[in-house]
Amino acid sequence: MEKVIISPSILSADFANLERDIDTIQNAGADWVHVDVMDGHFVPNITIGAPVVKAIKPVSKIPLDVHLMIEHPQNYIDDFVDAGADIITIHYEATGEMTEDVISHIKSHDVLAGLSIKPKTPPQDILKYLLMVDMVLIMTVEPGFGGQAFMRDCAEKIPVIKQNAPENLIIQVDGGINRETGKICRSLGANSLVAGSYIYKSDDIKAAIESLRK
Ligand code: DX5
Ligand code: ZN
Predict the structure, then answer these.
(1) Which residue blocks in 49-151 are alpha helix, DSSP H?
(2) What Rg do the C-alpha atoms of the chain give, in angstroms?
(3) Mean pLDDT, consecutive 10-residue segments, the chain of 214 residues?
(4) Is the dihedral of CA 119, 153, 185, 150 positive or negative?
(5) Which residues pair with 112 in a beta bridge?
(6) How confident is the model at residue 2, as a pLDDT?
(7) SS3 state at 132
(8) 54 alpha carbon to ligand 2 midpoint, in Å?
(9) How high does pLDDT run on average in the chain?
(10) Residue 195, pLDDT score
(11) Sheet holding 5-8, edge to edge
């Protein structure tokens, strides 16, 4: 199978020990660090913002994959770029008709641009943006919390995106990913997996990351 980008979510890390927990995943072979930014409006939870991204940047040897689950993401792109984000993913539901402008804004910086859809949003809604972005992120849970169950139906969006995508588009999935669900997503065409609880709650983090590559 194609090479897969593994992006462990630090939402499941110990926030009092972020340096240690980032070190653990990078030593265990993670490709990216997934950072879940939530504002309490777009999703019913508040997590972390640009100051935390800035704080972890010097201790992260691998790219910071920043997932913005916030309203008005266009107002915060520059903050996250300045903080050291390497990939910035926005939600189509948050930008609507402004999506193209916000993608252009992200792409005007030296970072990758991602576009995400929630479980109820059909993949057809974002096909017109596939040539503009570097990555599509398909949510396989309702965004807001770690540790939720994988929604199998959402994975059916992967082939729809893949069939319409340029060859180098990264197709990422996020939510309820473990060895079994990760395999389903990869067989459907995903080439990047986000996993929070599966990786951080595992007794052997290296083995958990490797299991997602098999
Ligand atoms: C959910 C976040 C996810 C979350 C995944 O809103 O976007 O990145 O951390 O957690 P798990 O892997 O535990 O479902
Ligand atoms: Zn996420």
Answers:
(1) 50-56, 77-83, 92-95, 99-107
(2) 16
(3) 91 98 98 98 98 98 99 98 99 98 98 99 98 99 98 98 98 99 98 98 98 96
(4) positive
(5) 87
(6) 72
(7) coil
(8) 18
(9) 98
(10) 99
(11) 5-8, 192-195, 170-174, 135-139, 112-117, 87-91, 64-69, 33-38
CA of 135 to the centre of ligand 1 (A): 17
Tell me if 181 CB under 6 Å of ligand 1. no
Residue nearest to atom 4 of ligand 1 (CA): 146
Q: Tell me the C-alpha distance between 195 and 155, whole Å.
A: 15
The tokens describing 36, both together, are 């879940």
Distance CA(177)–CA(34), nearest Å, equals 13
pTM (2 d.p.):
0.98
For ligand 1, what atom is nearest to the CA of residue 12? 9
pLDDT score of 1 = 59
Total of domains in the chain: 1
Domain CATH code at residue 50 = 3.20.20.70
The pLDDT of residue 131? 98
Please give the residue range of the domain that contains residue 206: 5-211
CB of 8 within 6 A of ligand 1: the answer is no
Residue 172 to residues 13, 68, 146, 197, Cα–Cα distance (Å): 20, 14, 16, 17
